[in-house]
Write a structure and sequence with these properties.
single chain, chromosome, histone binding, mitosis
């Protein structure tokens, strides 16, 4: 036979040089039975040959060497090869038993050949170069080994192909194979794989014996790897991996790779890369495969695979579709790093450039790889295998990479980086100096926009806290004391050189510094820093005892300062923690609560404040959130750390924790704490001993502790009244909270807390012999004293301000426990009236007394209203029970009448009176009468004829403050609150005084935010109480949304939100004011406004749709920026989801474009249209009404909006609308171009008209100048003529005088001539002055016209030339004017 060469395919064996037949010549296939028998005969032939091989061994092949004919082979003859070919080719159509026998026979033959190869001795002293033909296996053995190996490969190939077809049928829902078939296939696969592993290992370890000079036949060596690749394709899971013998397949590939040459290795690497590109599950398998390859001296497979990963081209693959292959390859790096970190570190230079690639999967995998390297090489000096050591420089470089990747552009990579940090911290591989930077990174990522990143940031903070290098107790006070001691010690024991420099700096600061304390601290910090640096340079073998002690103190100082900086980081991140806590996502809330639990265990101060904020979630509508908050509350304040709430703390510790929680809490926090404590008391989670300890604190504790303990007792009494409602505890409350201590210390907080606790006590029943009643009677007397403010000082307004809340709670307590509260309150008002008005010195009462008086009046009136409603409710309940009982009796009587035996005895005269009442509806009439009586009492009794109503005019006068007589801020606040409470009682009183309240609110000082905020809240209550009376004043309430005070705006928006959502105020055009709140500078106002619109949009009728046209119209006229307008509209238009609403709104807005008065309004409307989802109908409407917005398309914003509409429509509209879109686009573009040209033409025409107007003005100026010049030239000639005429007249008069001198008397000569001359001179002087004034006026006129001319003709060349000419003329006129004046 010719040497066996591995063919390209099995069917190539029928061609030269093999020339095999499909079937042997003696193959009988007349029928199925004969065919099956023929296949069995072939299998039997193979089994007989295997027995011969087992007995003969290598001698069967060496015999051919001695023979002359090389083709003489007694075992591997043509018949065996033909039988193998026929059986393998038809293996998939064989019966299961025949196939199984074939597989066993083939595997047995291959294992026998492999064992012969392993056991045949070879001269150990020979090398590959010195091998001879006698030391290499015969060619016949190689042919037999290759043939059987290839045949086994072919069977396995067919087996894997059939398995893939079966899997595809299963996934596609086709006919399923039975379990027995799958089990048989798995057994066959396992048997074949074992034989293939044996052959692969035999070839790998005996290549010197199998091939001359060790030059392997790559086509034979690669066969186990080829079938191994195909087997690994199906290893998609744990079950599939076991079924397809993936572990064995990896052994086959590893054995092939171990001793293969570069060519075979390249083939394996290329195949593995292709598999990783194609299959998602291959990356971890390839990483495991690399670990199977021994590292002698290097892991060639891992090195080559990492090089190939580094050569991946990621340019332009940012999309998910393009990067799918790389996405499958990327996990290989991270998995291999987890198994062989130093191996990956030594090859990191190949794939590190991918940190700048566009595919985030690679970046994420590299980050995870770095975490594995840092975590698994911590404290490992030698490392495993071959690889670079992780020195300090490499560690720092890797940590810096993780710091940079925290801000990656991809949220997935940021999340992977945070997971990497968590892994590094948990493995305790993070150096101590890196804890603060990592904490800063985690806090910064709490503001990330991605949920996953925020959650991992909280987990990282929790992990950092649990693994911090400092002590378990992070209470800052202890460290601050220790830091001060260490600083003092170091400053007192400085080295000589540093000490001298420190003293010199202190002397200079003492004489030259202005702020000596500040500069002294700076000098001390600089000195300590120098001492720390100097101590780090000292060598251990050269230190004295003093230096050793100083260095230890310096190290302790550095450690303590780092601990305080670490604590300060968490304290500064409270805002970020609160953001997570109040997130809408339950995962954010859960992670924040877990952090607070851990923070409390480490005694971080932020844990208390955080839990106070967290308790606000007790009011959440989601039960899961409430359960998480309650669980966190128990773990923080009640349970032992680390026990998950199963083991409680001691009662003393619990009481201390609860008092710490309640101390310095706000009103809203106290309400949330009360809700939490109440629910825990109901479930008996708080031991009873805790309340006993709290009572002892009330009696013997400090001022702050008394108040806190009393508040907690009051909260617990809301769920269990027995905590307070007993004689002994009421007596203790009276003595400790309402006795001499409270009067002496004026502890109004304790008085308020005790009054709140008394509101949980049952109403007293008059019984002079009952000790509890006597205690309650004494308590009511003391409550009246507190309510009147008898202990208040008139010299301190702060005392009165603290008394307000105590008085309010005391009055509530009186109405709760007194049997006749109206009498008690009447006495309080009368006594307080006497103290306020009758006992006041002088003609005016004290403003603080008057404020207290009005405060009591308001609370009494409001509590009288509540008490009246409570009585009315009791009457209604009694009437309802009575009516229900009557109905039961009537039904019983009717049932009795239906019984014939009882009907004879029944009275048939008439129905009973109760039945008549039930039929006529007397019960309903009684209920209506009760309602009427209650309304009459509130309207006429409380503020009509009652004691309180007598002071209403005085209250109104003080609130009006005419003349500024009642300008006290405390008085104004108290009187305004009282007036609001009066208005809650009576509708008539409210309607009468609402204008006064709004006028006072409008003219209130800008700084009086407390009064304005309180009034706004009270007005909201009035809107609930009397909606009809309040409705005309609704716009005035909206006006407060523009108040300068953030507090007033927030309270106003809160009231309007409640009113709108409860349908107490109609949502009209004023909602535009709420829309403007979406751009408010305060985030709470923005969030509240957004919540309001979300709530409105969730309603079935979606009122936002009806309000949008008015909102758009009003916003476009408001003085807001375009960015703000578009931001608001983008938010509001997002609520328009229905196609019909979007279409209708588009039609309305398009019609408004044509009626808009400015191009900016048109642009705003076009933007709104572009943000709506356009349907086919709206597209047609826009196309048909093109003329409505055609003239506005010259504006860039309008054009951009409509082109955007077309671009979106092309993606969604039907095919038949595509031509319409093309036509519409052409019309828009042409109209826009025409509009731009028209705009340019109009601009040119306007410039031309302006230029013509300027020319006319210049021509007029020129004509005026010419007239002026002519007049100026004429003036000198006129003056000269006048002078000549005067001169000629003088000559003529002289001649006449000379001729008639003898005839006239002397006296006439002396009198006539001077008069005549003086008259002419006067006339001449007058004319000259008039002429001079006229010239000056012409000069001023010319100058002013020249100035106007200069301003209007700056940019025009022709006009500029005319201007120069005119200027020269004017200048010439000016030069001539002085001459004319002269």
């Amino acid at each position: 036979m010719a040497p066996f060469q591995v063919p390209a395919s099995l069917h190539d064996l029928e061609r030269a040089p093999y020339n095999l037949l499909p079937y042997p010549l003696d193959f009988d296939d007349d029928d199925e039975a004969a065919r099956a028998d023929s296949f069995l005969d072939l299998v039997h032939q193979l089994e007989q040959g295997n027995r011969t091989l087992s007995s003969g061994g290598v001698s069967l092949f060496t015999a051919a060497i001695a023979a002359d004919d090389g083709d003489s082979d007694e075992w591997m003859d043509e018949d065996r090869v033909q039988a193998l070919y026929t059986l393998v080719r038809k293996s998939m159509s064989l019966s299961p038993d025949t196939r199984l026998r074939l597989v066993y026979a083939l595997c047995q033959a291959l294992k026998t050949l492999s064992s012969i190869l392993d056991t045949e001795p070879v001269d150990s002293e020979s090398t590959v170069e010195s091998q001879t033909s006698s030391q290499v296996m015969p060619q016949s053995f190689r042919d037999a080994f290759a043939c059987h190996l290839y045949m086994l490969f072919s069977i396995m190939f067919y087996q894997e192909s059939e398995a893939k077809v079966g899997n595809s049928l299963k996934s596609g829902g086709g006919n399923k194979r039975d379990n027995s078939t799958d089990t048989q296939s798995a057994n066959i696969r396992a048997t074949c794989a074992d034989a293939m592993v044996v052959a692969a290992k035999a070839m790998a370890s005996n290549k010197a014996k199998l091939w001359r000079r060790g030059v392997v036949d790559e086509s034979v060596v690669i066969l186990p790897a080829r079938i191994g690749f195909q087997m690994l394709e199906s290893a998609t899971g744990v079950v599939a991996r076991k079924a397809c013998s993936a572990d064995t397949a990896m052994e086959m590939i590893a054995a092939t790779t171990e001793y293969s040459d570069e060519g075979a290795l390249g083939t394996v690497v290329a195949a593995l890369m292709d598999l990783m590109h194609s299959f998602e599950h291959m990356a971890p398998i390839c990483a495991e495969l690399c670990c199977l390859v021994p590292e002698k001296p290097t892991n060639r497979l891992a090195n080559e695979l990492l090089k190939e990963v580094g050569r991946l081209n990621t340019n332009g693959m940012s999309g998910n579709d393009k990067a799918s292959g790389i996405r499958n390859v990327a996990p290989f790096i991270s998995h291999l790093a987890g198994m062989r970190p130093r191996l990956v570190l030594s090859n990191a230079a190949y794939f590190m450039p991918h940190l700048d690639s566009e595919v985030y999967h690679l970046r994420s995998a590299i980050v995870t790889c770095i975490a594995s390297i840092l975590s698994n090489t911590a404290g490992d000096e030698e490392g495993e295998g071959q690889g670079n050591p992780l020195d300090e420089a490499n560690r720092t470089s890797l940590l810096k990479i993780l710091c940079d990747r925290v801000r990656d552009v991809s949220s997935f990579t940021r999340a992977a980086t945070l997971r990497a940090w968590i892994s590094v911290v948990q493995s305790r591989s993070l150096p101590a100096e890196w804890f603060i930077p990592v904490t800063e990174l985690a806090i910064d990522r709490l503001n990330d926009k991605t949920i996953m990143v925020r959650r991992l940031s909280m987990q990282l903070l929790t992990t950092v806290l649990e693994n911090n290098p400092f002590m378990g107790d992070l209470e800052p006070e202890r460290y601050q004391v220790k830091l001060a001691e260490l600083q003092k010690f170091v400053l007192d024991n400085l080295p000589q050189n540093i000490k001298e420099a420190h003293e010199a700096a202190l002397e200079e600061a003492t004489y030259s510094a202005v702020e000596q304390d500040t500069e002294r601290k700076e000098i001390e910090h600089a000195t300590l820093a120098a001492a720390i640096v100097d101590a780090e340079t000292w060598k251990d073998d050269e230190l004295t005892e003093e230096q050793e002690l100083l260095r230890n103190k310096v190290q302790a100082l550095t450690f303590t300062q780092g601990c305080l900086d670490f604590i300060a980081l968490f304290e500064s991140a409270n805002e970020a923690f609160n953001f997570m806590l109040h997130s809408k996502l339950q995962s954010d809330v859960t992670e924040a609560l877990k952090f607070y639990v851990r923070a409390r265990h480490f005694k971080l101060p932020c844990a208390i404040s955080g839990m106070k904020n967290a308790l606000a979630l007790m009011w959440s509508t989601e039960q899961a959130v409430k359960d998480e908050v309650r669980k966190a509350f128990v773990e923080v304040f009640l349970a032992e750390p680390g026990t998950d709430g199963k083991e409680l703390l001691s009662s003393d510790r619990i009481a201390e924790n609860l008092m710490t929680l309640i101390t310095d809490a706000t009103v809203s926090e106290i309400a949330s704490i009360e809700e939490g404590i109440t629910s825990l008391v109901k479930d008996e989670m708080i031991p009873a001993d805790v309340f006993v300890i709290l009572w002892s604190v009330v009696s013997k504790g400090s001022r702050k502790a008394k108040s806190a303990a009393m508040q907690i007792l009051s909260m617990g009494a809301a769920a269990d009244r027995s905590i307070i409602n007993s004689k002994s505890r009421l007596k203790l409350l009276l003595d400790a909270c309402l006795g001499d201590y409270t009067e002496r210390s004026k502890d109004w907080g304790l008085a308020r807390a005790s009054a709140q606790a008394l509101q949980k006590v049952d109403r007293a029943t008059v019984d002079e012999g009952c000790a509890k009643y006597l205690v309650l009677e004494r308590i009511m007397e003391q409550l009246a004293v507190v309510a009147r403010g008898d202990w208040c000082s008139d010299h301190q307004s702060r005392d009165t301000l603290e008394w307000f809340s105590a008085s309010e709670e005391a009055i509530k307590a009186l109405f709760g426990i007194s049997s006749c509260p109206e009498e008690s309150c009447s006495e309080i008002v009368q006594v307080l009236y006497a103290n306020t008005f009758k006992n006041s010195e002088g003609s005016q009462c004290h403003s603080l007394r008057l404020a207290r008086f009005f405060h009591v009046l308001g609370n009494v009136a409001l509590n009288l209203l509540c008490y009246t409603e409570e009585l009315s409710s009791s009457v209604k309940q009694a009437n309802a029970k009575k009516a229900e009982q009557k109905q039961v009796d009537v039904d019983a009587k009717k049932a009795k009448k239906q019984n014939p035996a009882d009907a004879l005895e029944a009275d048939d005269s008439s129905q009973s009176e109760d039945e008549m009442e039930a039929e006529l509806g007397i019960a309903a009439e009684v209920e209506a009468e009760t309602e009427r009586q209650m309304s009459e009492i509130t309207e006429t009794e409380i503020l009509g004829r009652g004691l309180v109503s007598a002071f209403a005019p005085t209250l109104v006068k003080v609130v009006g403050n005419e003349g500024g007589k009642f300008g006290s801020e405390v008085l104004q606040t108290s009187s305004m609150n009282a007036l609001c409470k009066f208005c809650c009682v009576s509708a008539e009183f409210c309607e009468k005084h609402l204008p006064l309240m709004f006028s006072v609110l409008a003219r209130a000082p800008e700084g009086d935010t407390v009064m304005k905020a309180n009034t706004v809240v009270a007005l909201g209550d009035l809107a609930f109480r009397w909606p009809n009376q309040f409705e005309p004043f609704t716009p005035h309430l909206y006006a407060n949304l523009r108040d300068p005070s953030t507090k007033v705006r927030r309270h106003t928006l809160m009231c309007l939100t409640h009113l709108i959502l409860n349908d107490m105020v109609k949502v009209k055009g004023q909602v535009c004011e709420i829309a403007l709140c979406l751009q408010d500078e305060d985030c709470r106002i923005r969030d509240m406004a957004g919540l309001l619109f979300h709530s409105l949009a969730s309603r079935s009728n979606n009122p936002i749709y009806n309000l949008l046209p008015d909102i758009i119209s009003q916003l476009s006229q408001c003085d807001i920026s375009r960015e703000s307008f578009r931001s608001i509209m983008l938010f509001l238009l997002g609520f328009i989801k229905k196609e019909r609403q979007s279409t209708t709104l588009t039609e309305k807005l398009v019609l408004r474009i044509d009626k808009s008065s400015s191009i900016s309004q048109q642009a705003d409307l076009a933007y709104c249209i572009s943000q709506l989802k356009q349907s086919d109908k709206s597209i047609r409407f826009l196309f048909d009404n093109f003329k409505l917005y055609k003239d506005a398309l010259h504006d860039e914003d309008v054009l951009k909006a409509f082109t955007g509409i077309i671009a979106k429509a092309r993606k969604t509209v039907k095919i038949d609308l595509k031509p319409l879109l093309d036509e519409w686009s052409d019309k828009i573009n042409s109209s826009a171009e025409t509009g731009k040209q028209d705009k340019a033409s109009n601009s040119k025409a306007l410039k031309a008209a302006q230029k013509q107007q300027k020319k006319k003005k210049s021509a007029k100026v020129e004509s005026d100048s010419e007239e002026q010049d002519e007049e100026s030239e004429e003036e000198p000639r006129r003056v000269q003529r006048t002078r000549r005429r005067a001169k000629s007249k003088a000559i003529v008069s002289d001649e006449e005088d000379a001729s008639g001198a003898d005839a006239r008397p002397e006296s006439e000569e002396d009198t006539d001539d001077p008069d005549e001359e003086s008259e002419e001179e006067e006339t001449q002087n007058t004319q000259t002055q008039q002429q001079t004034g006229r010239v000056q006026r012409n000069r001023r006129r010319a100058k002013s016209k020249t100035t106007v001319f200069d301003e209007e003709c700056k940019d025009d060349e022709e006009t500029e030339k005319e201007n120069m000419t005119q200027t020269r003329r004017v200048n010439r006129t000016r030069r001539l004017a002085p001459k004319r004046i002269v």
